[in-house]
Amino acid sequence: MARIHSTAATATAIIAGVSAINNGLAVTPPMGWNNWNAFGCDVSEELLLTTSDQILGLGLRDLGYDYVVLDDCWQDVNGRDKNGKLQPELSKFPNGLRSISDHLHSQGFKYGMYSSAGEMTCARFAGSLDHEVDDANSFAEWGVDMLKYDSCYHMGRVGTPSVSFNRFKTMSDALRATGSNILLNLCNWGEDLVHTWGMSISNSWRVTGDIYDSFTRPDDLCGCNQVSPGDVNCIAPGTHCSVLFIVNKVAPFADRSIPGGWSDLDMLEVGQGGMTDEEYKAHFALWAGLKSPLFLGNDLRDMPAKAFTIINNPAIIALSQDPHGRSMTRVRRDTDVAKDEWGVGETHVWAGHLQNGDQAVIMVNFGGQDADMEVSLAEIFIPFGPGGAAPHNKFDWAVHDLWAHRMPESTAESVLAAPSVAERAALLKKANWYNATEIPYAQGLRDEDPRLFGEKVGVVKAGGVLKQKVKSHAATVLRLRRIAKDGEKFKGKSIDRVAKDEL
């Protein structure tokens, strides 16, 4: 036990002393909504404000979704004014951008905006390259809390880590110089090994090309499909990247995220309509477990009830917001499985340590048939020692299903159909739904709030094997909880279970 406690204490001390860019932001992965996936350039003041009303009314802000982000295409088509300042398109934003941030702030939201570290944005509006100071000052004047900073039309200033680092660092420095504490989300698609330097200047960094609404389908526009998706030197990240491609790409460096700085797997596609319910559940759980920022990308004003019951599951969100702040990593990948319609077939097991000593496990089947999957405790705990050397293998573990208490679809339909915020709030209260504004996730986990722990469905004995039947294109999401041995004491007290920092 002394060895285990020492290891955990050291890890805790390291994490406590490291906070990436060290600006106090994004201590856990940021959450919110971004318009791009559902609306592209069809943006307006009305869209942002009606969506913020919906996030608030559905209780999503109180689950942690507190950033509302305006993506590309917000600018006047004529570009900068005579003083070199960016200007919003007044037909879309008749009251200006400061009024939007003021309104969002009054609702308890944070306001995000977009630009590009290039001469143009990806939609070919004016970019911020060589205008960083002016643009940072504009963002601060508009009350911006987050900047999504893209990499289109970079004028050739790419190709080595130092060149890309310096290009993005210019904006990072300019934002800091404004005196406003603005979260910086780099969107350079994983180029120039951003996972090795992004945390020095930003709070999150994209690691692949743009996602699209597919679980496994390859697409030539996701340029690295022709090489190993684990190749960190891929030079054509592109767009139309599937969920499978993105997780394969990040697997070799999934452990680079730390509190204050997160690998960004791109925005969520849940509710867009291109995947099945099981695929969306797996997509959402993987993004939560891998500690990607969780930014909803669908039209929340017209959302299927099933999609609502995915994005509002507090037991899954608690994986994202766990104070330990470390991503799950892949401990097993098998490719000798039945192929799906796109010729893809593989299964993964991802595992990760949580603050209270629990272990998260996601078993995901990207193959074409249901699979009987299994993984030993030795593999699940391999980060603590290979070959079964991890002391965790000596204990029994209770297995909890984190989808077990998913909101009933009928309840979700009632909440979505309720005509007023008050009626929606009453329905959520009746359902005893989690509210992270009232009880932050760290507190809820510490207090063993049952809404964050799913349902116990079994036990894995010491040195044993976890077995699950996983549907095709689906995932099983589990939380393993250590069971104390008879008569065991923790810090001098008899306990039923140990799940603290001694592991």
TrEMBL record:
Any one Gene Ontology BP term: melibiose catabolic process
Signal peptide: 1-20
Catalytic reaction equation(s): Hydrolysis of terminal, non-reducing alpha-D-galactose residues in alpha-D-galactosides, including galactose oligosaccharides, galactomannans and galactolipids
InterPro entries: Aldolase_TIM, GH, Glyco_hydro_27, Glyco_hydro_27/36_CS, Glyco_hydro_b, Glyco_hydro_melibiase, Melibiase_C
Gene3D superfamilies: Aldolase class I, Golgi alpha-mannosidase II
Main location: secreted
Pfam families xref list: Melibiase_2, Melibiase_C
Top EC group: hydrolase
Protein's job: Hydrolyzes a variety of simple alpha-D-galactoside as well as more complex molecules such as oligosaccharides and polysaccharides.
Matching PANTHER family: ALPHA-GALACTOSIDASE MEL1 (PTHR11452:SF75), ALPHA-GALACTOSIDASE/ALPHA-N-ACETYLGALACTOSAMINIDASE (PTHR11452)
Protein name: Alpha-galactosidase
Higher taxonomy: Eukaryota, Fungi, Dikarya, Ascomycota, Pezizomycotina
